[in-house]
Amino acid sequence: MTSEHKDVSLTTNPSTNDDSSPVVARVSFKAPPFWKQNPKLYFAQIESQLAIAGITKDETKYHHVVAAIETDVIAQVSDIILNPPEELMYEALKERLIEQFADSETHRLKLLLQELQLGGDRPTQLLCKMRDLSSKVPEDLLKNLWLQRLPTAVQQILAVSTGDLEALAKMADKVLEVTDSSSIHLVEGPNSGCKDCHTLRRQIEELSKSLRDLQDTRTKWRRQSRFMFFIYVLLVPLDHN
User: Fold this and answer.
1) Does the keyword Coiled coil apply (predicted)?
2) Prediction pTM value
């Protein structure tokens, strides 16, 4: 859907008086071709264009949409085209097209949980796509699903960051902008980074244990040193006597 399909023009009839303003006489409108991939968004766009053109009559809106439908789509609404209802023609056509071409809730959830990845998008763009698929998904779950699609390095930075999901998405954009892409491991799927996370966690635990052992050794050494010094202080005077 691009603006090249939109043809809204104003035709004016100037008054015979030189000092009068032109009067709007006609508004022509051409609807963009029907967008099968996202019919809800298509109707949101076309209704804005109809409003700009001043077209409010239901029957007129109906005929504009019919004129924009491709032949392979008309077959899906042939009963309405051949025998339109007497009232709410546009609403009936709109409802049928959305019903026929909008993704089912099951398919949308499948895209959200399994197929949708970051790819070449920015984190904010990915979040926008996921929100479009997740009208019924809780915010916390959406956040976790979104984080799993981000590079491991970005996940680690956001893990210690505060703010709502929108703020985190903007931060993720900035992190990707300043980070060398060659040093970031892109996550191919929701669970592909788990092995690296476990390895990193194990290394951190081993390092922490080594530090604790070192601290224990130093503590014991200091205690032994103080004890030997105490013995030395006690014994040295006796040797002189």
Assistant:
1) yes
2) 0.44
Report phi then psi at 44, rounded to 5: -65, -40
Give the angle subtended at the CA of 113 by the CAs of 112 and 118, to the nearest 5°. Answer: 65
Distance CA 214, CA 68 (A): 76
Residue found under tokens 């014991």: 220
Task: Give residue 187's identity as a one-letter amino acid code.
Answer: V
Q: Which residue has tokens 């049928």?
A: 96
Q: Which residues, 6 or more positions from 98, have their beta carbon under 8 angstroms from its beta carbon?
A: 39, 40, 43
Q: Dump pLDDT digits (tens) for 39-86.
A: 888 899 999 999 999 999 999 999 999 998 888 888 889 999 999 998
How far apart (Å, rounded) are the C-alpha atoms in residues 44 and 84? 22
User: Taking all residues of the chain, what is their mean pLDDT, rounded to a whole number?
Assistant: 73
Which of the two residues, 137 and 59, has the higher pLDDT score?
59
Is residue 215 classed as helix, strand or coil in its secondary structure?
A: helix
- Cβ neighbours for 96, distance < 8 A, ≥ 6 positions apart: 76, 77, 80
Are 120 and 112 a contacting pair, CB within 8 Å? no
Q: How far apart are alpha carbons 212 and 93 in whole angstroms?
A: 71
Q: What is the pLDDT of residue 13?
A: 46
Max CA separation in the chain (angstroms)? 134
